[in-house]
Amino acid sequence: MVRKSSALWALALLITLASAVYQRMTGPSYPARGKTTFAGSQVNYRLPRTHGDGDAEVRVPAPTSATAGTIAWKRNNTRDAWTYLPMTRDGQDLVAHLPHQPPAGKLAYRVILQEGAERVTLHGAPVVIRFKGEVPIPVLVVHIFCMFTGMLLSTRAGLEYFKANPDYSKLILWTIALLTVGGMILGPVVQKYAFGAFWTGWPFGADLTDNKTAVAWLAWIAAGLKLRRDPGAGAWALAAAVLTLVVFAIPHSVLGSELKYE
Length: 262
Fold this sequence. Notes:
Elements: H1 2-26, E1 32-38, E2 41-47, E3 50-51, E4 56-61, E5 68-75, E6 83-86, E7 88-90, E8 93-98, E9 106-115, E10 118-121, E11 127-131, H2 137-159, H3 169-195, H4 208-229, H5 234-248
Parallel strand pairs: 3-11
Antiparallel strand pairs: 1-2, 4-8, 5-6, 5-9, 7-8, 9-10, 9-11
């Protein structure tokens, strides 16, 4: 029995880690990466899509000493004209800086390389970068710890369904407690520091980060209440765990807060 319980914890940890990595690497905050061939060389680029204090640095490799770069930017979702700035050389790289924006402000930008008659725009479509305020490290650490551990316990509570004599009580209690502290309390605090508003999900907005946290939290409250009345309703815990994994697999910051310039 102990061996089976340990195996379920190991499986829950593996699933949670995979979900966290997937969420992190597919969200709109993850840098836009790609490669292209220019001036006879392969250019591997990494374009930022999130930034904190100060101007945002955009740095790309220059294939040759004759390669010139231009960055074009404008405020996202506005009728602004594009602003074109020449990039400066820093060793083997070309560098430009996008002007700092208020929290939740977004800029759309393009990087253009040119050498003689050859010209290429990296990434094709414009990249959107969102600016954010700085979140105090202690607040961020506790938020991340609670959310990750809450997801781990959520997954483990769902896997409890497959034991011969499942016991959900403590697992569900700790799942709800961690999602409450990490998501429903510290989540809005982090949101306020980073983007200037405590809550931008339903009914005030469409921020999926806020909405998916609320969905998972409500799912576990419903499962907990159901199991208190009917200890044999383990399928509710399994369903809540699956729902939590599904909603948290939605990439972080999709439909996130955005400053309305106009």
